[in-house]
Design a protein that fits this description.
The chain has about 300 residues and is an alpha+beta fold. It contains 10 helices and 10 strands. Strands 1, 2, 3, 4, 5 and 6 form a 6-stranded mixed beta sheet that branches.
Length: about 300
């Protein structure tokens, strides 16, 4: 009865952290894009408990992948798949046992949404079987993690609130994407603390930037958009990890049209119009990264 889903990675082409909310989360303004790097998640078995008990059991069998060894070391209770299943079951009013198979190809703790994408894939699999109303499914996704609502459908989107307010964008980018990760793990919670946001919103010209972002994705041309796209985490993370700033500059020196850190790090992404330059950049950066790959955008309309 195996049901399979690809769990695609994401990159943040733009990321502003605006303020800290009363619930402890942060409001963001981000442009997210799905790239063609993915884990594979399968639902091996499910046993729904009809006795009225509320216990939920999740088991995750790691079947391989580039980062399968790392994923196998994560306690199942700490895996976002488990959290997603629990939130889905709460919304659906069900309980039982769920066994998943996971092929792990997205590096963890890298700003690529690997764990969140696995969680989104689990929600999609369960929703095909149990069919939650859209608002309940969104609530389950939002409770699981900030990136999960976007990763439920992928593509390109402007994401606001805690990531749960999503404006899907039409268009697409034809750039070759180089992803370089040197193994530094950036704790997301610590990165937010370093930003020091409080209840007061950071000044943001979001409306003007939205128009530029929409045109950028619609036409696929960076042009002046590159002057507006930022990541608020870069200054604080680069100060602690100067090697990441160095990788970004080397990406630009290699001919990237645009280079940036994704999420709270530590992956540096470069967008290349010229694929040959992207291939050259990958070779030049091999000594700087423990993981480097070429990919592209997978959410083009």
């Amino acid at each position: 009865m195996e049901q399979e889903e690809r769990a695609y990675a994401k990159i943040n082409l733009h990321l502003e952290v605006l303020n800290k909310r009363n619930d402890g989360f942060h409001n963001i303004f981000s442009l997210m894009a799905q790239v063609d790097l993915f884990d594979i998640l399968k639902l091996k078995s499910v046993d729904i408990d009809s006795s009225g008990a509320s216990e939920i059991f999740v088991d995750i069998e790691v079947t391989g992948g580039d980062f399968g060894g790392f994923a196998a070391e994560i306690d199942v209770t700490d895996n976002l798949i488990t959290k997603a299943v629990s939130n889905f079951c709460e919304e659906a009013g069900i309980s039982g046992s769920f066994v998943f198979l996971l092929e792990k190809n997205i590096p963890a703790g890298a700003g690529l949404g690997g764990g969140s994408s696995d969680a989104a894939a689990a929600l999609r699999i369960l929703n095909r079987r149990f069919a939650l109303p859209p608002e309940n499914l969104l609530r389950a996704a939002s409770m699981t993690g900030a990136d999960v609502p976007f990763l439920m459908n992928g593509g390109y989107a402007i994401c606001e609130g805690t990531g749960d307010i999503i404006e899907k964008l039409d268009g697409g980018l034809a750039h070759t994407v180089v992803l370089a990760n040197n193994g530094i793990h950036v704790d997301t919670g610590q990165a937010y603390l370093l930003l020091g946001r409080n209840a007061d919103s950071v000044k943001s010209d979001a409306n003007a930037t939205k128009d530029i972002i929409r045109e950028f994705i619609r036409t696929g041309r960076l042009n002046k958009a590159g002057n507006f796209l930022i990541n608020d985490f870069e200054p604080v993370v680069f100060e602690r990890h100067p090697v990441l700033k160095n990788i970004k500059h080397k990406m630009l020196d290699a001919g990237a049209d645009f280079a940036f850190m994704s999420g709270s790090g530590s992956t540096i992404a470069g967008l290349f119009t010229d694929r040959e330059r992207a291939l050259s950049a990958r070779e030049n950066l091999r000594n700087e990264a423990v993981y480097i790959t070429l990919t592209g955008f997978s959410g083009n309309n």
